[in-house]
Amino acid sequence: MLPNYAISVRRKSRTELKGLDERQLIFELVKDICNDLDVKSLCHKILQNVSILTSADRCSLFLVQGEKDSGNRCLVSTLFDVNPDSTVEEMEEKEEIRIAWGSGIVGYTAESGSMVNIPDAYEDHRFNPNIDGMTGYKTRSMLCMPIKDSAGEVIGVAQVINKQQGQEFTVNDEKVFESYLQFCGIGLRNAQLYERSQLEVKRNQVLLDLARIIFEEQSTIEQMVYRIMTHTQSLLQCERVQILLVHEASQGTFSRVFDLEVKDLQGDDAESRTSPFESRFPINIGITGHVAMTGETVCIVDAYQDSKFDSSVDEFTNFRHKSILCMPIKNTAGKIVGVVQLINKFDNLPFTKNDENFLEAFAIFCGMGIHNTHMYEKAVIAMAKQKVTLEVLSYHAAAPREDALRLMKAKIPSAQALKLYDFKFDDFSLDDNGSLKACLRMFLDLDLIGRFHIEYEVLCRWLCSVKKNYRNVTYHNWRHAFNVAQMMFAIITSTQWWKILGELECLALLVACLCHDLDHRGTNNSFQIKASSPLAQLYTTSTMEHHHFDQSVMILNSAGNQILSNCTPDEYSRVISVLEDAILATDLAVYFRKRGNFFSLVNSQDHDFAKEEHREQLRGMMMTICDVAAITKPWPIQKQVAELVASEFFEQGDIEKEELKITPIDMMNREKKDKLPQMQVGFIDSICMPVYEVFAKLNPELKTLLDGVQGNRGQWNTLVDETLSKEASANNNNNNNNTGTNTDNNASLNK
């Protein structure tokens, strides 16, 4: 029942109204109805007032239902047999009467739009005496008048029966009746518009609820479909709602059928139910299959009169199909993924165009919900597969325990014996086994094992696993990772920056150095983007560095490799955070972006490494000078490393030419290998020299590194000069040869 907004004023009694003249009477009756927006209440007032105007014993009001020219229009008794003393509540208990369009006196009045005044109903062939038989009331005189809206369209019929004292309805009754109904038509239309607006408000609220549902209910398709079906049933008022999901492999068949009957919402388990019934009810495959195949909406008034309906579905059930509204459900790409079917609108009414519009909105939301749920289910499956894959990968990534046990038994030389404090450490002096022992020595001398309660076997296995996960590429392999870690160890100990950084950050930096190029493929970030590799799709910036970090975390979380397992939660979070920042800092793009601020801090002597922000910049730059530290080593070592780097770059360039069909940059182009000295000078000037100059200012102990860079620049520059000299000499020889050839040619011509 919609709210009644009538103004609360005392209505005049029948006796008081009878004492008014015609004009005053009409005014009072119009005033009585003008503020009532509830259709039932308004109709009841209209009928009571009509009975006063015409001195009639009983009145009825029929409203038009169905669209114009739809073929299913009829008149429905909104209120029937109202008398001056009846109440709205009493009238609502009476059974509804439906009259076909054009049938009987009421139907004729609606169809013709004309008034009908009958002195004796039983003498008129249009009168249906069966209604008197049903009600036990004897109809004599009758006056029927169409109610029209402002556009002149018939929206209802008012009927008054049996003028008091056995008289006939007069011409004056007709005139007064018609005058009053003109106002009633306007009021009734306003009430209907208000009722529709309230329905629209409800519709919008339901659609908002649906929008919320498809975002909330993505875990299972059953729960999402059930909530959509209950909303559909409550708004469109039908006996049964079905949602059928189309089989992906065969468009005309259905993989799942969800069924909801109105009584399902009334049972003892209605409140606890979260999913509809499946496949419990026969499907009229003729209609649903047709909709699934064609994408057409089907609206049927009488199922048994439609050739597509298979009546056998009703044979073994207590259910009988009458009206059907069936519509396709499409996903966001417009593909039909299902069918929604409404069966038997309440009160034996046909489904209207308005119902179709509502259902279309439901179908859109249902399609979105099904699509989202499918995506969610696929994501869950993908995550499960990923978890299994990670478990398998973690197992195979971890080094065998036997390797760790062998390393545990090994005697670990001192840092002095291994020359780990030396900035000029020979990058090629240790084999794999020796480098693992050297790593253990660094952890021991920094007291990281004791401070963080790292189990010795776990540390040995973790080191073996890290080494195992470096690929056998030309340069970015385990040896490079170890050399970066050795340089970090030498810097931390010689400068005593372990006091600034603290044990936790020292641990994170040492782990970062050993892991910073894990699973390097011998190709850089630019190549990943050019090749549209899965890594480039996964990480849009610092592609390889993000991958190195992820591999680091995977190994740290692998059984038997959890060197951080005895850290407190806060310590663990801090180590992982510093580890991530440190590994990402090895991307030269990050270095270029951040070095300006760091250089300014040092040059202006505004740095305060007690501040986390300044210390973070220090850690990032330390990673860079350790990563490119080969440029500081004695010339033979530097030259050998540079040739390894160039070889790996040329291998990438070969792939770019052969597979990607692009011309590599000079640094990657094997045909430009003679320019290696020139490129090394450029590398030193643009990347290395500035940062080592700043660190030499920051701590005198690091002046050795700057000296090494400057010395190697001189060596490379000498090679550049030699190359240029050879090129100049070769050009002179070519010019001399060309001159001799020209002289001979001229002599031949003179001959």
Automatic annotation (TrEMBL):
Coiled coil segments of this chain: none
Amino acids binding Zn(2+) 1: 480, 516-517, 627
Domain of life, source organism: Eukaryota
Binding site for Zn(2+) 2: 517
Keywords linked to the UniProt accession: cGMP, Hydrolase, Metal-binding
PROSITE patterns: PDEASE_I_1 (PS00126), PDEASE_I_2 (PS51845)
Details of cofactor binding: Binds 2 divalent metal cations per subunit. Site 1 may preferentially bind zinc ions, while site 2 has a preference for magnesium and/or manganese ions.
GO molecular function list: 3',5'-cyclic-GMP phosphodiesterase activity; metal ion binding
EC number: 3.1.4.-
UniProt xrefs under InterPro entries: GAF, GAF-like_dom_sf, HD/PDEase_dom, PDEase, PDEase_catalytic_dom, PDEase_catalytic_dom_sf, PDEase_CS
Segments for region (Disordered): 728-751
Pfam families referenced in this protein's UniProt entry, alphabetically: GAF, PDEase_I
Gene3D superfamilies tied to this protein: 3'5'-cyclic nucleotide phosphodiesterase, catalytic domain, 3.30.450.40
Required cofactor(s): a divalent metal cation
Catalytic residue positions: 476 (proton donor)
BP-aspect Gene Ontology terms: cGMP metabolic process; signal transduction
List of residues binding AMP: 476-480, 517, 627, 680
Composition-biased stretches (Low complexity): 731-751
UniProt keyword Zinc-finger, yes or no: no
All copies of domain PDEase, residue ranges: 400-723
Family (UniProt): Belongs to the cyclic nucleotide phosphodiesterase family.
Protein name: Phosphodiesterase
Originating species: Halocaridina rubra
Gene assigned in the entry: PDE5A
